[in-house]
Design a protein that fits this description.
alpha/beta
Length: about 475
């Protein structure tokens, strides 16, 4: 199957972060693009402004005429989040349209390019956006599909207007639903393999097996860049080139890490290069690790140390990844997408390193009933790194409730003295009379809807 057979693409779930990046690629490459999503969001409104037709009601009558009249020339792309009873999906399936998952289509697109695929249970969005930015800022031809909005480009899709034989595709390789197995990269990255998505995998060993399968998809002359902490357990069967990275350890490593004016500075070293005093625009020890592998890949693709230094220092991050909303003398507000205990621990430890003598208030919204059930003790332990915790109700996303699973199973084991539970709707009132200093909003659900109201409350109170 090749894309040359199609000239129209219809997306079911077009507002998803991965789906919308694909929609932008097809739109830029002169396909007719349209789609359905359940709700209008800032992202879908941006797509509409880019001349992509979108509707928000599920019904066969809403499928564009162009799609209905040309079954052979239309490709249907769907997200697994589409429910089984979806009217449009079932109509298109029953009519015999070619229907592909997002991951399969990403695999088809990237097959035409030299591909860098970034996988991992944490860090893949930041790392892939760093790789893309380093290449783009150095003037290289790229096309990048990201799982978040890159601040430098205000988009989850980065490209050159002209595609050439030198174009590098940078893609986020998602382990959810084993999506990354549709890719065959030239360079693969694995940042982490902590237990997650146990509703899909059952246990960590099955998740690790899937990562090994992904590593096995690397092309014969390709390379694997892998965090040195997990290299031994995941590379036992891999016969290709393995490059490890880390902090003070690995073939490529960061060292001499310091914090200055809220920024992390570090040295990068490998067998051929040493780049001193890199200033990273996004804080966090975990982001130093992400930057280290991004630099290693950039150098492997023949960027100069000077180009790398310029790119790292101009990198502005990804929306909702250690994103500063306020940075005042009396109050700080940081927003982060962390939704796994390991991510929360890394985030709060980095925040503590930046603000060692200030009170940290963590506002956390658990994401998924199954993840809350599977990692309740881990969530409680990682959140206890803050001085105060405000715990919201679980955001269900695609799941139905699980009996006995509420945020209470996390709350009861949080060890800080100052802790409170409230709903998302009660959050502003909960914050109104509290003494606040460094505030962090954390989670992958719809807590993002509260970030700007929280910011405005803090701005007004502290006159930032």
């Amino acid at each position: 199957m090749t894309l040359k057979n199609y000239h129209s693409v219809y997306f079911l779930g077009i507002g998803g972060i991965g789906m919308s990046a694909l929609a932008r690629w097809f739109n830029e490459n002169n396909f007719y693009v349209a789609g359905y999503d359940r709700t209008s969001t800032e992202l879908t409104r941006q797509l509409e402004a880019e001349n992509i037709s979108i509707h928000y009601q599920d019904g066969v009558d809403f499928i564009p005429k162009k799609i209905k009249e040309d079954k052979e020339g239309s490709l249907i792309v769907y997200t697994p989040a589409i429910p089984k009873g979806h009217l449009e999906f079932n109509y298109l399936r029953d009519k015999g349209y070619v229907i592909q998952k997002r991951s399969q289509v990403l695999g088809m697109i990237s097959a035409g390019f030299y591909t860098v695929a970034v996988a991992g249970t944490h860090g893949k969005t930041t790392t892939s956006s760093m790789v893309a930015h380093l290449l783009k800022s150095a003037g290289r031809d790229i096309t990048a599909f990201l799982g978040g909005i890159a601040t430098n480009y205000r988009s989850n899709f980065i490209s050159n207007e002209e595609i050439s034989t030198e174009t590098v595709a940078v893609v986020e390789a998602d382990e959810f639903d084993r999506s990354f197995l549709a890719l065959n990269p030239d360079i693969a990255v694995v940042t982490a393999s902590d237990a997650d998505h146990l509703d899909i995998y059952g246990d960590k060993s099955n998740l690790e097996t899937s990562f090994k399968e992904f590593i096995g998809k690397i092309k014969t002359k390709g390379k694997l860049f892998i965090n040195e902490k997990i290299a031994k357990e995941l590379t036992t069967d891999f016969k290709g080139t393995v490059c490890t990275y880390g902090i003070n350890r690995g073939h490529f490593f960061a060292s001499n890490i310091t914090m200055k004016n809220g920024f992390f500075e570090f040295d990068y070293s490998d067998e051929r290069h040493k780049i001193e005093r890199l200033r990273l625009g996004v804080p966090g020890f975990h982001n130093v690790e992400n930057a280290t592998v991004a630099i290693a890949i950039a150098l492997d693709l023949l960027l100069s140390p000077e180009e790398v230094k310029v790119g790292i220092e101009s990198y502005l991050g990804v929306k909702r990844r250690f994103e500063y909303l306020l940075r005042g003398q009396d109050v700080v507000l940081v927003d982060d997408y962390a939704h796994h205990p390991v991510e929360i621990e890394a985030f709060l430890k980095s925040l503590r390193a930046l603000y060692p003598d200030r009170k940290i208030t963590a506002i956390f919204q658990p994401h998924l009933y199954s993840r809350t059930r599977d990692f309740a003790d881990g969530f409680a332990e990682s959140l206890s790194l803050a001085d105060e915790v405000i715990l919201l109700d679980i955001y269900p996303a695609r799941e139905e409730p699980i009996e006995g699973i509420t945020s209470e199973i996390i709350f009861k084991n949080i060890s800080v003295d100052e802790k409170v539970q409230c709903s998302k709707q009660e959050l502003l009132e909960c914050l109104r009379n509290r003494e606040l200093d460094v505030v962090a909003t954390i989670g992958a659900g719809d807590i993002d809807q509260m970030v700007l109201p929280v910011r405005d409350l803090l701005k007004n109170r502290y006159h930032v």
